[in-house]
Design brief:
alpha+beta; four-stranded antiparallel beta sheet; three-stranded antiparallel beta sheet; 2 helices; about 20% helix; Split_barrel_FMN-bd; Pyridoxamine 5'-phosphate oxidase family protein
């Protein structure tokens, strides 16, 4: 994995977000979205690592993979997301859902950190980082 800090969009003296931190942010996320945004799109977030995975989204129809995913979501959300794997995706409560996987071509990590943790005002000084990871 090649990791690089994009200094054009990062504050001086900051460091690239490590791959382990990027994976941890994805694993710890309570909810993840597959989205498309316009060039003017904007995300609202606070001290965090916002991770964007770019790549081709492919529909998952392999029953064994779907069963593993259903088990993983069941474990991650303490049983509150109970899905039945079908030949076409997931089923829950009589509703069907298609499942997609993104094969990463590039992973971007956008970090924001307050330089004064006790200052929570909107005017507090923050450091920004923009890191890219490529397989």
């Amino acid at each position: 994995m090649e990791t690089r800090l994009d200094e054009r969009f990062s504050d001086p003296g900051t460091e690239a977000a490590g791959w382990a931190d990027t994976v941890k942010a994805l694993e710890a996320a309570q909810i993840s979205w597959l989205t498309t945004v316009r060039a003017t799109g904007r995300d609202a977030w606070d001290d965090a690592l916002d991770v964007v995975v770019e790549g081709v989204a492919r529909r998952v129809t392999d029953r064994a993979k779907l069963e593993r995913l259903a088990e993983a979501w069941l474990a991650k959300w303490d049983g509150s997301w109970v899905y039945e794997a079908t030949d076409d995706g997931f089923r829950q409560g009589g509703h069907d859902a298609v499942v997609f996987a993104v094969e990463p071509a590039k992973v971007l990590a956008f970090g924001r950190k307050r330089t004064s943790p006790t200052d929570t005002s909107m005017l507090s000084t923050v450091e920004f980082t923009h890191t890219s990871h490529r397989p």
